[in-house]
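Help needed: design a sequence for this.
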């Protein structure tokens, strides 16, 4: 006698970590439509960024007409940069420093998606995703901290129809 093990679902995961340092020179000139009209800045910038992200998904497998996926996503981005330079105003040169600017962005999301094959050609489905995004930036030169939090629940509905083995038009409403 033989036995077969059937897996009702599969676990998928993806991780990444990036540690990035750079050094570059940049310039900006404020235009007439800004409150900084007439200002020009030139100087080096030394950004450092560390990013970690993780996604985990649990998805159905097999030949059932019901297919589903659920999961979560997390990302943390930390930026630290220091820049110095010269501010040019009306021909006068002023040395300045942005200071040690720090920024943090933390995002997480949870999602789910389900589809059902009504026939061997017609499939319908839907899903939802909720996310939160927290952002903070410290500006020592301006003696201020800016922060904001965003969140939203989004949804989608889908339908597809297999005209042939290699032709399958679909509709996605979100």
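Sure. Designed sequence:
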């Amino acid at each position: 006698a033989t036995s077969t093990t059937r897996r009702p679902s599969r676990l998928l995961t993806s991780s990444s970590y990036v540690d990035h340092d750079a050094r570059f020179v940049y310039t900006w000139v404020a235009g007439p439509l800004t409150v900084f009209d007439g200002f020009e800045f030139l100087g080096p910038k030394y950004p450092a960024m560390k990013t970690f992200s993780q996604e985990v998904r649990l998805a159905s497998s097999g030949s059932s007409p019901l297919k589903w996926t659920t999961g979560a996503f997390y990302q943390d981005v930390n930026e630290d940069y220091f820049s110095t330079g010269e501010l040019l105003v009306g021909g006068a040169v002023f040395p300045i420093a942005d200071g040690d600017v720090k920024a943090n962005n933390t995002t997480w999301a949870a999602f789910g998606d389900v589809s059902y094959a009504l026939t061997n050609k017609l499939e319908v489905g839907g899903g939802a995703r909720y996310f939160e995004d927290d952002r903070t930036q410290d500006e020592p030169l301006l003696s201020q901290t800016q922060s904001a939090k965003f969140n939203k629940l989004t949804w989608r509905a889908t339908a597809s129809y297999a005209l042939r083995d290699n032709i399958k038009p679909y509709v996605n409403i979100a």
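The CA atoms of residues 160 and 169 lie 6 Å apart.
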